Amino acid sequence: MSLLGDPMAVVKFKAYTDADAASNEAIAAVAGYHIRIISYTINAANGENSITFQSAAVALSGAMELANNASIHATCDAGLFETSVGVAFNVLQSAAALVAGHFTYVLIPDLTLNETG
Question: Which domains, from first to last, does the chain contain?
Fold first, then answer.
């Protein structure tokens, strides 16, 4: 049995680096799919920052405070959170300071596309 019990689930990896105090795209949207985050590591590489993970502009996490050069990490084989269908996974940063890290994720098809009726 593979990750998430889906033999077609392909694990993907994405590096992240941004220094804008804004909602920054970490993983681009894919039409017809949710982006399910399996793990992340994030580092406030150049000053304090507060980050929030987002499905487009909707919060998936609470704001997480990061001290200068502090890192956070989480992992769960079943997934930590996922975006709505067809929207980007974003990282909202409170400060214009470098944040770097990486994400492990899978694309989950929108099962409602197969519903009839």
Answer: 9-110 (2.60.120)
